[in-house]
Fold this protein.
Amino acid sequence: MADNRASQVSVHKDGRFEPAHAGPAALAGPIGPAGKGGGMGGKSDGLMMRMPNAMALGDFVGDLRRGLKIRQADLALRAGVSRQWIVAFEQGKPTLEVGLVLRTLETLGLEVEIKPRDPPPAWMIKLAREAQAKQYALQVRRRARRRTQREAERLNRLAMNAPKGVVDWD
């Protein structure tokens, strides 16, 4: 299986990387160092790929490493992790430490870019609407409290300025 996957990323003579197949971890177009490849569009022109889970990220990193002809031990040494950790990363272990994942990606010359989904997930929209409704209800209660306080102050001023005997509070 490792031999089959080793050809999934091709390295061109000019330094560009390109996926060699159209599997689930493949990229949408040519990729490469900043300014050299197409990527999936957007503002960044480096390596671009949507990572739905840890397995896809591990597959991508393993394919890239093999395409660059870098041994796991060499990558581990440069990233400051063990070879077993690299194996776990490439197998898609979802509980790896985020800092080490980021450091390994940086060692490979990759950076992580996070952008919001459009549209956001339904649960997030629901929570935002609930929070807005709570905020609005709080504002309405505060306005009502201020209005009643202002009304009480106005009545007190009227009572203080009224002629004797006109206002009877009892």
